[in-house]
Amino acid sequence: MPGDALSQDPAELRKRIDSSKAHPARVYDVFLGGKDHYPADRDAAAAGLAANPRGYLDVRHNRDFLRRAVTTLAEEDGIRQFLDIGTGLPTAENVHQIAQRIAPESRVVYVDNDPVVLAHARALLTSGPEGRTDYIDADLKSPERILELASGTLDYGRPVALCLVAILHFVEDEEAYPIVRGLMDALPAGSRLVLSHLTEDLNPENIRAVQRTYTERGFTFVLRSRNDIERFFTETGLKVAEPGVVPVHRWRPDHAAPVPEQPEESYLAGLEDIEKVRYKDINDVTDADINVYGGLGAKG
Ligand SMILES: C[S@@+](CC[C@H](N)C(=O)[O-])C[C@H]1O[C@@H](n2cnc3c(N)ncnc32)[C@H](O)[C@@H]1O
After folding, report:
1. Dist. CA 164–CA 198, nearest whole Å
2. Residues contacting ligand 1 via CB (< 6 Å)
3. In which domain, by residue range, is 63 found?
4. Angle 46-52-54 (CA atoms, 0-180°, nearest 5)?
5. What is the C-alpha separation between 121 and 89, in angstroms, rounded?
6. Percent of the residues in the chain that have a pLDDT greater than 70, as a whole number
7. Distance from first CA to last CA of the chain, Å, rounded?
8. pLDDT-wise least confident of 5-9, 182-186, 200-204, 289-293
9. Are 83 and 109 in contact (CB under 8 A)?
10. Which residues, listed in sequence order, are joined to residue 107 by a DSSP beta bridge?
C-alpha cells in the first residue's frame, strides 16, 4: 500500500501517543460524540464548551459542511479524487464513504499527523472494490512529502479536490498561505479546494473565549477574517463557487441533520455538559452560534 499506514510498529506508535496533553483530533472527537480520546482531551473540550456553551454547533456543522461539499463535488462536479488533509478520527462518516456512495470508483487519500488517527486508520481504508483509499501519516507542513506519497493513489493528470477542513487555524500565516499555494499549484486544472476555517468575524466574544482555553493548552489557534480566508482561494487563482465563503451552516444547506436517538431523561440528567453534546439536535442553530466559514473553489 503506498502510504503504508498499517505497517506501523505498534510499540513505536505507542511511544508517539502522548495522552497527557490534549490533541486537536481527539478534542474534536469529543464534540462529535466519539470514543477515541483521553481525559486531557475531554478536559480541553469541557473548557471549550464552558467558554462557548453552544460550541458543539461549530464542530457538528463544520462536519456537515464537509459532507455537503463532498456530495456536491461527487454528484455535480464529477470529481473522483480527494486529498483530505487533517482528516480527524473516523467517528463521523468519512470522505470516501460519502464519495463512493455516489461514484464507487472514487479515490481518497487521508492525511493526519496525530498518531491516534493513525491507530484508527484501518477504518479509513475500507474502500469499495472499484475505488481506492490510502492513509498518510504526515504533517501539512510537509506538502511535498504528502504530494509524493499520495501520487501512489491519485493521478495528478486528473482533477483532485484538496480538503483542508478545520485545519488551517493550527498554522500561522507565514506557513499557511505558501502551503495552500504549493498544494494547489501541484494539482491540475479543474481541481478544487474545500476549505473551512474558524473566524472571529461572526461572534467574537464566544470564539475568543474558546481560543484562550486552547492557547493555554499550547495549541496554535489562529482566527481569520472572511477576507483572510478568501485569500486562500484568490492567491491561488481559484474561482469561489456560490454562495461564496459563508458561515458553514449557510453553505448550500440540504436536508435537516438527523437527530441523535435520545436516552432516558434520568440518564441524560446525570451526564456532564460535555457528555450531553452527542445527543444535541444541530438543527437548532442560529447565526449567533456559528464561528466557522466554509467555501469551495475551482482551479481554472
Ligand atoms: C479540528 S480537526 C478537523 C477534522 C476534519 N477535517 C473535520 O473537519 O471534520 C483537525 C485535524 O487536523 C489535524 N491536524 C492538525 N494540525 C495538523 C498538521 N500540521 N498536519 C496534519 N494534520 C494536522 C488534527 O490531528 C485533526 O485531526
Report:
1. 12
2. 24-25, 28, 62-63, 66, 86-88, 112-114, 117, 139-141, 165-167, 170
3. 2-299
4. 95
5. 8
6. 98
7. 32
8. 5-9
9. yes
10. 81, 132
H/E stretch holding 111 reads strand 107-112
Summarize pLDDT for 78-101 with one digit per residue, the tens: 999 999 999 999 988 999 999 999
Closest ligand 1 atom to Cα of 89:
27
pLDDT tens for 153-200 read 999 999 999 999 999 999 999 999 999 999 999 999 999 999 999 999
Rounded to whole angstroms, how far apart are CA atoms 226 and 72?
22
CA gap 232, 250 in Å, rounded: 20
Tell me which residue has its CA closest to atom 26 in ligand 1.
Answer: 25
> Any idea what the CATH number is for the domain that residue 65 is in?
3.40.50.150
- What mean pLDDT do residues 56-75 have? 97
Section 61-72 average pLDDT: 97
